[in-house]
């Protein structure tokens, strides 16, 4: 009996045996075909399917599905054993008996066939071929070699054949397939080998059998005179053992299902795409799973995805609805809009303080040109008015407290300027309402809007434009994260919900994104220009896009390929996520805990590869100022980082270049500084007694060093576009960018350090919004995540 520690060497040996005088025999499962999960998880999936059938069809479940399965297996096997066969089931009889014990004899016939189809679907979703076996069979397929397959498996031969075909094997390569459930004999008793000898009329001395099981494929085959060869590929064998432990971890803490779902998807993507699952996939998929549940809970039939982040969100959402709730009537639409396009219809009353406040928050460069950019006033007119009121030019830096400075107040009260702004607002409002009517926006009493977050400005702009419309629907804004400003905008028919992060809830892992929102906005950006307004073409209102020739747009295009890599990866992850959810009828709660951990790692503890790629992307303001800011601010030394980290959109990207202790300490200190900013809802609006805005920065204003610089379709077209623009960077996602359990433990110690500092100063503490620490340690010890 030979032993092989790698599949490659085993099939190289098999190639040497090819001859007319011998028969090559192969085990199927864990030799030719592997699973991404433990077989127990497939059975879990079937048991949960039976529970779902009972619930959905209002059928009384008479026994626990797991116990019923065991009872059915024993009864059918014992019956066959009494007839002189081995203790093995007949698959068809077994399924009928299982259904009969669960639901009664009246359901056994038609539900048994559904059970068989469901089991096949689950099996097909978790199998993949042994690549060395495929190479071997393809190489010798023209030699006329006599090959048989042998398996101890309760599934029927037809099921096994379907599994082999799905894994890429051509059934014509094999003379015959022997399965214990159909023959009634088992390998481990040796009876199946004896049965095969008689059937093919070959002596065991000339049969070389390859399999993974020491007893069934080794000793039993050797005992009856076959040449047995044990193939236990080291890598695959470790993965199988780890998959068995995953089942135990699911029982230890259901939240562990999030990690196991990731491991399943990660392994599948490495095989299918040649790259691991990025951290973006779990984050977006869990967020959108919660969105699906919200729509079902509140009976919302129509959901709008706001551009530009909504494009990839819509594709993932549709995957989840199709896979998890195929009978729901939820309809998703892509909504061409932006902060600029949605705020313009509200210019009907000229420049108001609320509009001005939004414009000031949009820029860090306090000049008339930047602040009033959304109002789209011609620069010549604006320059003339500035000089008239004592402001040198539209590009002159404004003084501290400019919101109460008379020249500036006189400028925004100018009659000519307000007339121009009002006309623009009225024109755009008419077009905007017509565009919404074309989207059937006013047909439903409730609708949902989905975006990544954060302050709900687009939703509020839309609501303010339509709140006096007779058919104004109740709007549910569902966001990955919400800032306090979103809650302040809450109205009776405009509501805000968050799924992972909220500024007023100090969950440690979810809170990571609140202070670094630009990462999620950048990674979900669609590869089309910002919507700047609406035009009428051929009697139909269509979105107007920023010119492709503008410098800020050209800068965006440079990173479209890189962003597409992560989006394509996230979309593929969502497809695998759907498959895994079917095993446990998962809600969003268990995967959500793991998704928050991924969000935390992506933002606070990024790998060097991830931070170097994403950090070089430039973020562009979409409220008309066209300011371009690099996410990480470029590479620099430690002292330079200390001086500039406050002004960087994503400072954590820079800490990835230093050691783990620097990362841990910086995360803790930054979170500690943010702790006093968490103000309970409701909070007073940021205005003084006279209605003027309180300035964010009372230091002297300076010009910053910022460098200013056909209709898009979603789903099938979006996949095609991602493929086209992603060709040059197809395999850009590396293993180091996938989930790293060590980062989770590092974040936990940052969490403890932060709360220690908060206790010293009596600040509000953060709370752990994911796993218990023991589970984190078990995750860290879990193998084969990548």
Question: What would your notes on this structure say?
Answer:
This protein is α/β, with parallel strands linked by helices and 786 residues long. The protein has 33 helices and 18 strands. The strands form five sheets. It has a six-stranded parallel β-sheet with strand order 1-8-7-2-5-6, with helices on both faces. The chain is elongated. The two termini are 33 Å apart. Residues 678-710 have low confidence and may be disordered.
Keywords:
786 residues, alpha/beta, 6-stranded parallel β-sheet, 5-stranded parallel β-sheet
Number of helical segments? 33
Number of strands: 18
How big a fraction of the residues is strand?
5-15%
Query: What is the share of helical residues?
Result: 40-55%
Largest sheet: 6 strands, parallel
Q: In brief, what are we looking at here?
A:
With 786 residues, the protein is of the alpha/beta class. 50% of the residues lie in helices and 11% in strands.
Fold topology:
Blueprint: E1 2-4, H1 7-17, E2 23-27, E3 33-35, H2 39-56, H3 65-81, H4 91-103, H5 108-126, E4 127-129, H6 131-140, E5 146-151, H7 157-166, E6 176-179, H8 180-183, H9 191-200, E7 207-211, H10 214-223, E8 227-231, H11 234-252, H12 256-273, H13 280-297, E9 302-306, H14 310-324, E10 331-335, H15 339-343, H16 353-361, H17 368-371, H18 379-388, H19 406-412, H20 415-438, E11 446-451, H21 457-466, E12 474-482, H22 484-488, E13 494-502, H23 518-523, E14 531-537, E15 540-545, H24 551-558, H25 560-584, H26 589-603, H27 608-614, E16 618-620, E17 627-630, H28 638-644, H29 652-655, H30 660-675, E18 707-708, H31 716-725, H32 741-760, H33 773-781
Parallel strand pairs: 1-8, 2-5, 2-7, 5-6, 7-8, 9-10, 9-11, 11-12, 12-13
Antiparallel strand pairs: 3-4, 14-15, 16-17, 17-18
Helix pairs in contact: 1-6, 2-5, 3-4, 4-5, 12-25, 12-26, 13-14, 13-25, 13-26, 14-25, 25-31, 30-32, 32-33
């Amino acid at each position: 009996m030979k032993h092989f520690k790698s599949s490659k060497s085993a099939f190289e040996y098999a190639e040497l045996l090819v001859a007319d005088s011998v028969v090559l025999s192969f085990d199927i499962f864990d030799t030719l075909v592997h699973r991404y999960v433990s077989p127990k998880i497939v059975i879990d999936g079937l048991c949960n399917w039976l529970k779902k059938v009972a619930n959905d069809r209002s059928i009384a479940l008479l026994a626990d599905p797991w116990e019923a399965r065991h009872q059915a297996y024993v009864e059918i096997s014992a019956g066959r054993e009494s007839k002189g066969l081995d203790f093995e089931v007949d698959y068809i009889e077994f399924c009928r008996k299982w259904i009969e014990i669960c639901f009664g004899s009246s359901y056994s016939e038609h539900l048994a066939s559904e059970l068989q189809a469901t089991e096949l679907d689950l099996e097909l979703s978790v199998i993949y071929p042994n690549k060395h076996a495929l190479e071997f069979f393809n190489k010798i397929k023209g030699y006329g070699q006599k090959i048989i397959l042998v398996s101890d498996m309760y599934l029927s031969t037809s099921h096994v054949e379907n599994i082999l075909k799905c894994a890429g094997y051509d059934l014509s390569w094999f003379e015959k397939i022997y399965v214990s459930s159909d023959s009634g004999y088992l390998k481990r008793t040796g009876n199946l080998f004896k049965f095969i000898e008689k059937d093919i009329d070959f002596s065991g001395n000339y049969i070389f059998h390859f399999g993974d099981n020491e007893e069934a494929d080794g000793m039993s085959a050797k005992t009856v005179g076959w040449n047995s060869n044990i193939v236990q590929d080291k890598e695959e064998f470790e993965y199988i053992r780890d998959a068995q432990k995953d089942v135990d971890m699911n029982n230890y803490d259901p939240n562990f299902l999030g990690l196991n779902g990731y491991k399943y998807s990660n392994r599948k993507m490495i095989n299918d795409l040649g790259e691991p699952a990025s951290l973006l996939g779990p984050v977006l998929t869990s967020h959108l799973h919660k969105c699906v549940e919200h729509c079902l809970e509140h009976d919302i039939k129509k959901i709008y995805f706001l551009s530009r982040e909504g494009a990839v969100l819509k594709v993932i959402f549709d995957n989840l609805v199709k896979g998890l709730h195929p009978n729901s009537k939820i309809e998703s639409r892509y909504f061409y809009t932006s902060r600029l396009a949605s705020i313009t219809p509200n210019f009907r009353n000229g420049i108001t303080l609320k509009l001005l406040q939004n414009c000031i928050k949009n820029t860090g460069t306090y000049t008339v040109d930047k602040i009033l950019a959304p109002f789209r006033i011609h620069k010549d007119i604006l320059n003339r008015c500035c000089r008239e009121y004592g402001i040198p030019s539209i590009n002159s830096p404004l003084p501290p407290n400019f919101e109460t400075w008379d020249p500036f107040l006189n400028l925004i009260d100018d009659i000519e300027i307000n007339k121009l702004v009002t006309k623009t607002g009225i024109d755009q409002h008419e077009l905007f309402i017509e565009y919404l009517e074309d989207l059937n926006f006013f047909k439903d009493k409730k609708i949902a809007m989905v975006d990544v977050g954060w302050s709900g400005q687009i939703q509020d702009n839309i609501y303010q434009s339509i709140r006096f419309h007779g058919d104004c629907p109740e709007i549910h804004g569902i966001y990955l994260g919400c800032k306090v400003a979103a809650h302040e905008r809450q109205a009776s028919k405009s509501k805000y919900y968050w799924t992972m992060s909220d500024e007023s809830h100090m969950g440690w892992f979810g809170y990571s994104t609140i202070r670094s929102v630009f990462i999620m906005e950048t990674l979900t950006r669609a590869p089309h220009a910002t919507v700047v307004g609406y035009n009428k073409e051929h009697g139909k209102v269509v979105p107007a896009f920023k010119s492709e020739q503008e410098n800020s747009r050209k800068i965006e295009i440079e990173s479209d390929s890189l962003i597409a890599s992560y989006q394509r990866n996230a979309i593929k992850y969502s497809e695998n996520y759907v498959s895994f959810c079917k095993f446990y009828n998962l809600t969003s709660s268990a995967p959500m805990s793991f998704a928050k951990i991924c969000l935390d790692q992506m933002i606070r503890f990024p790998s060097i590869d991830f931070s170097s790629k994403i950090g070089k992307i430039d973020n562009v303001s979409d409220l008309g100022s066209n300011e371009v800011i690099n996410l990480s601010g470029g590479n620099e030394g430690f002292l330079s980082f200390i001086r500039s980290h406050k002004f960087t959109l994503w400072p954590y990207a820079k800490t990835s270049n230093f050691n783990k202790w620097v990362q841990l300490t910086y995360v803790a200190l930054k979170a500690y500084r943010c702790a006093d900013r968490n103000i309970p809802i409701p909070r007073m609006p940021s205005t003084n007694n006279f209605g003027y805005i309180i300035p964010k920065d009372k230091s002297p204003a300076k010009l910053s060093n910022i460098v200013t610089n056909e209709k898009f379709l979603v789903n099938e077209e979006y996949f095609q576009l991602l493929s086209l623009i992603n060709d040059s960077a197809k395999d850009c996602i590396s293993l180091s960018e996938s989930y790293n359990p060590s980062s989770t433990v590092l974040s936990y110690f940052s969490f403890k350090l932060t709360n220690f500092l908060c206790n010293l100063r009596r600040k509000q503490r953060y709370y752990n919004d994911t796993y218990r620490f023991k589970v984190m340690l078990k995750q860290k010890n879990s193998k084969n995540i990548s």
